[in-house]
């Protein structure tokens, strides 16, 4: 794992700022989140009205919540939304009532196997109200009447998402997507949001080859909305990465695109293996995060997903234990570093054509062959040139060269640069 | 192995009824066999005249035999066809002579390595006469003269084979073939005949997708005759299975078609693996049973072969030890069960097209998403729907879905049914 | 390894005759070498003038050397070209001077890690002069002045290479190439030259299917010159083998062509595996011997390379320790035997078409089926016929048949011959 650097601490600070907000698939929590992210990178925010048809779906009513609690007979709040956004069932309809605990119970959600933790639950598309609380809290409640109140609104409004674009040399795009719909859950997905924001910043410092588009949108309905509104742009999307669960202590996991042999798949496999980090590479499955949508068979984009411990793979998943202590600056910095390495390879993975393909060109008279020999670096540079010449037949890219030669990608890319300058190959 | 069921006992009873008959590639033994099988499933019997050109071959003369023996000087039959149809060389020409044992010996066939067993030998295409006997019997014969008599006829007649068709929803066919030319040998191939008959019965109880054609024919020349007379039908044959050696105590063996990646190959590999039975999957070889003919390069049909211990793989092979005791109700029931499982998969292995392929369709509003969650079956059903939607791109069938998802084929097929009903996919 | 035969001793004698000559990429040493090889097989010698453009290169000036030495103050030669052609830097420019050892040192090349050995060094394309000597010799030199003299000429002349052709039944060619530019180095590449010469002799004793062209040329520039002058012929080159390091005690190593699945690659892999010799099969790399040129992407010929211990893989490589003692008759005979086996397979690896592809043809009535059965050879011959018939679909050659059947290639080829004679298949 990469050493803790300042950027890790900065990302963790962003996670902590975003943590208290009550996000959902619509509403002011998302807007507040995007305002804060916008302090780091400029964002173009989109508001899509309730009722807008998006692919097979419809943009739902906007949900906002001001207050929610369960109070006992003395008026004391025994469960209070103000303490944690997890306490209210996501998309809870308003309620204001007094009822005995026996009746209230069927609106209460706990995690008996982790009695101190509060679960995260939602009911987006079926009108419900409810509270999430720890089993310990529930067990301590005496029978009797309780006042329950959810001061929420479900009404026509908008779905909100944002984009940030790092322009490249070509209009072909790489998308980086992360979901912004989860309330107070740090790894899922504030860490992903933070890594995405700092990745965008890093890319903007150079002029990349590809145009990189960062999408901050609610899960599922947000990705579907983006796809519905960007039908023509989708053809420009050549590669992509969904970032989620980017800060937990587990090892890195890359989930391949549905195609399995997309260039992003090959790049991520290569970079993870070459980095000698412990990691996993998983096959595509049609559940998880928004790779589900980008890889649906009609689009079938070359979009994979990078996580540390993947979707639902850790006990803290979707509970109050997924808090800022669960994600570390070091882990987020490591995730960020791998993204940068991968995009560094992806961005330079050109196919070249050997312009002198009959026999070897005479490198020596072009000053490309170190006649002193001996130095290991010079030797590697020469081998890399021979490999690039050998495989620059229009069918192999520099990643192929790196894989077949066993030489570092950087060495191969440098050799290609020298040969290009000498007029021996062209992209 | 499946528990013994009534059907196993029924199949064994059929083997015992057929065992005494003297079958060969032509003649009344085959006709008698088909008459008995016809009591279980209706058969269409074909008689093809001697001399009929069939592909590169010609239908041979019909062979029938009434009696055959070797008698000693006292007139006592020391080898008697009436005791076992194996005692006479198949297709023996008639003989009636007296000769010393020294001269007789070159017409006698024994198995010195199994001195108590009688071998099975034939000479279909070169005129010969001979007897098969145990080494022990031979060793006990004193020198001296013996009367030998084979009361057989080789004359113009017919080659006999039969078909049984289970009509399906489509005219595309699955053929199930078994050879009926061996005399008193239980595993090779009375067990195969019995499994085929009861498989046909089972299929007839439902309306399968494919049309299933059962072919009961003598080996090699029978399959060649069928192919010669069904030149147009062959194009309808999409899959097939040759059944042989279906009742011995060994584990199941599937021999792949010449193509190796035919759908029947994939189905059999999947079903055998999913069933967790010990089994073998073998590459195609151009020897064995009638898969040789169906898979000859001009036809190259997707026809594999299911056996227990395969062709020539057990010491009892082609000897008197391959008797009804060698095959068990349990083993035959197990072979039958695997055939039914395999055809159950084959029959439902449709390719569907996702009619809502851009993003995931909203399963919830169609009642397809169990909003309660939690139950393991419901969870599996949902995953199966997502997998079917993801892979229904016109290039993957339900077997692909089952293999890639790791979900049971039945679960996948049920999910496809639900999605089809909801109008989200079509075959 | 094959037993020592007369041919091994003959090849070793040739190595010893060639060893003292001072070869380089041009000059009289190459001519003398080709004259001696020409005593074994007739050679067509080509002389290409200095300055001739050849692909991306130009034929260099011709280098010849008469004498070279370092003499001490007493006039005693402490390093003498007459003792070993390795003592002078290849392509040394003339020099005649007296200088102190301190100044001379930067023109001296030693191998400190092997103090008794003399290294082999060249400077073809940068004008230099120098001497190679053992570290021990250098260490024994007292400081003081030394006379240095290289009596060489670098002048317009020619590059010399030779060809020997064994005509075949077809004009499609197999090339066998070996480099002739190294001075007194036995394994690299006098052993390769010797194996090539005796391989040519052996091939000439039969009429092979392919035309076999043997190329004796200096490394790199020689292969490039040949390719430049044979632009149309290259299209006839279907297969090829570069022979180098053919006599050391190590096990055989086959380096695959750039294509990796060329027929020569398959043949060599098959023959080496079938022979049960310990051996290695390596991937193509764009460095090594003249496979670099033949496999450059513009040509991309099916040319592999056969060595024992490969390029730079043994400590004696490019030193005075690579002398005739380092190569053995036994090892060279073994390399030769593998070449003959491989070309024996390559030469017979036809694709046949089954002319009776519908069902099995009746082998018996054509006398192809040994009706006696039983004998293991006859059984193998029958299996081989069935395999050839099964795979003779226009897509498989006899090597495919041998690999899939597990039968020896010779058995398969004999079966194909019998079927061809019977009119059942055609090439």
UniProtKB/TrEMBL annotation, chains A, B, C:
The keyword Cell division does not apply. It comes from the Bacteria. Its cofactor is Zn(2+). SUPFAM superfamilies: Zn-dependent exopeptidases. Zn(2+) binds at residues 182, 188, 318. InterPro entries: Cyt_c-like_dom (IPR009056), DUF2172 (IPR032610), DUF4910 (IPR032589), UCP015244 (IPR012353), UCP01524_HTH (IPR032622), WH-like_DNA-bd_sf (IPR036388). This is Peptidase M28. It comes from Streptomyces inusitatus. The lineage of its organism: Bacteria, Bacillati, Actinomycetota, Actinomycetes, Kitasatosporales.
């Amino acid at each position: 794992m990469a050493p803790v650097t300042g950027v890790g601490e900065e990302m963790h600070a962003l996670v902590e700022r975003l943590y208290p907000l009550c996000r959902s698939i619509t509403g002011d929590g998302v807007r507040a989140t995007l305002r804060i992210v916008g302090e780091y990178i400029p964002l173009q925010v989109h508001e899509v009205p309730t009722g807008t048809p998006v692919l097979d779906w419809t943009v739902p009513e906007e949900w906002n919540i001001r207050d929610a609690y369960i109070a006992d007979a003395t008026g004391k709040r025994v469960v209070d939304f103000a303490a944690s956004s997890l306490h209210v069932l996501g998309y809870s309809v308003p309620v204001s009532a007094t009822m005995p605990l026996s009746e209230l119970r069927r609106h209460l959600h706990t995690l008996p196997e982790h009695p101190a933790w509060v679960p995260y639950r939602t009911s987006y598309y079926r009108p419900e109200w409810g509270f999430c609380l720890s089993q310990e809290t529930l067990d301590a409640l005496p029978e009797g009447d309780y006042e329950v109140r959810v001061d929420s609104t479900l009404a026509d409004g908008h779905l909100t998402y944002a984009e940030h674009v790092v322009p490249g040399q070509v209009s072909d795009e790489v998308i980086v997507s992360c979901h912004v719909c989860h309330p107070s859950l740090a790894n899922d997905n504030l860490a992903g949001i933070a890594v995405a924001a700092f990745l965008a910043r890093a890319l903007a410092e150079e002029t990349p080859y590809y145009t990189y588009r960062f999408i901050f949108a609610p899960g599922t309905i947000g990705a579907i909305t983006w796809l519905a509104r960007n039908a023509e742009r989708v053809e420009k999307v050549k590669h992509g990465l969904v970032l989620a669960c980017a800060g937990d202590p587990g090892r890195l996991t890359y989930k391949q695109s549905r195609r399995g042999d997309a260039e992003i798949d090959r790049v991520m496999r290569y970079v993870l293996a070459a980095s000698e980090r412990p990691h996993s590479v998983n096959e595509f499955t049609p559940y998880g995060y928004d790779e589900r949508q980008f890889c649906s068979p009609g689009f079938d984009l070359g979009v994979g997903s990078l996580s540390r411990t993947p979707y639902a793979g850790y006990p803290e998943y979707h509970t109050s234990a997924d808090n800022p202590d669960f994600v570390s600056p070091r882990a987020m910095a490591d995730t960020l570093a791998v993204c940068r390495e991968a995009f560094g390879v992806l961005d330079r993975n050109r196919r070249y054509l050997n312009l002198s393909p009959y026999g070897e060109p005479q490198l020596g008279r072009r000053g490309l062959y170190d006649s002193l020999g001996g130095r290991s670096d010079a030797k590697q540079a020469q081998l890399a040139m021979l490999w690039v010449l050998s495989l620059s037949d229009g069918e192999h890219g520099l990643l192929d060269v790196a894989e077949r030669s066993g030489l570092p990608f950087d060495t191969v890319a440098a050799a290609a640069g020298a040969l290009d300058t000498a007029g021996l190959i062209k992209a």
